[in-house]
Amino acid sequence: MRGLSLARALAVPALLGIPGVPALQAKATVRASPNAAPNAAVAKALHQRFPQTRVGKVDCQLVAGLCEVRAGANIFYVDRSARYLVIGRVYDLEKRLDLTAASQMALGPQVLMANSVMRSDSGAGEADTGLAAKVERNAGPALGRGVPAEKAEGPPAPDSAPDKVSLAGLPASGAVVWGGSGEAVTVFSDFHCSYCRLLHGTLKDLGVRVEERPISILGTRSLSDAVLCSPDKAAALERAYAGEAVSAKACDTAGLDANEAFAVRHGFSGTPVIVRSDGAVLRGYRPREFLAVWLKASRP
């Protein structure tokens, strides 16, 4: 039988409703030797499971209990037995650091940009690029989103963000408006998201008018509440991105509930998500030059 690639193995079990699990358990007898160096042992075990996937580097020291694996432009995680595989991002909450993004940056800025989109339009069985996006898409819209489970109830959301969305139903009370008088743009963000902070600075440089709608992906709801309830919301938003304390009297934050429900409904699984004035959706950070052109494309 021809050897499996990692992307193909994960695509097949997704049809059973449990992404990745059956394919990995099918070869559960492959184990990394506890007597070998962890990095080499895990690399060997992964090669036995997926001989068509070229594993470039394994790092079992970065995160306790997990080994980070680089395969081409993809980064994923396995335990030291190489039995359990995790697709997603790893955050150090104490340092407020996206460890996965740091590793992607080490592979090159183009890899970071490609992965920030978190979307792949290619089918299963192709090259292993976009692997995390494939698995997340197959997992369903309410799985592992960082949004409270009760907000994920209701009709199933689309598998991925549509090309365009309508923001007409969102209340003004859920937004912080800031910026200049240039192109209008709406940003779904998280104040602990490093790329949201980077995007914030880029949009400020571009002089655009921003309607920022916080959503809690990294457990930042209390901070979002404080920003929204501040007398000067724009100034509070600046302090939040700077990592400074933000305090305010409690107020009605139903607008934030609406933001999060909208994000779940439209499959916004990460931040930032940028929505142009014509409803066009862009997920992930982009450099200044790209955004300047993309924003102007909404003009008739």
Overview of this structure, please?
Helix 4 (99-107) crosses helix 5 and helix 8 packs antiparallel against helix 9 (233-241). The chain has two domains: 6-139, Nuclear Transport Factor 2, Chain: A (Roll), CATH 3.10.450.70; 149-296, Glutaredoxin (3-Layer(aba) Sandwich), CATH 3.40.30. The radius of gyration is 20 Å and the shape is globular. The chain has helices at 6-11, 21-25, 38-49, 99-107, 109-116, 131-139, 194-206, 221-229, 233-241, 254-265, 288-296; strands at residues 57-63, 66-71, 74-78, 85-86, 91-92, 97-98, 176-179, 184-189, 209-214, 273-276, 281-283. A hairpin with a 4-residue loop joins strand 5 and strand 6. It is an alpha+beta fold and 300 residues long.
Quickly describe the structure.
The protein has 300 residues and is of the alpha+beta class. Helices cover 34% and strands 16% of the residues.
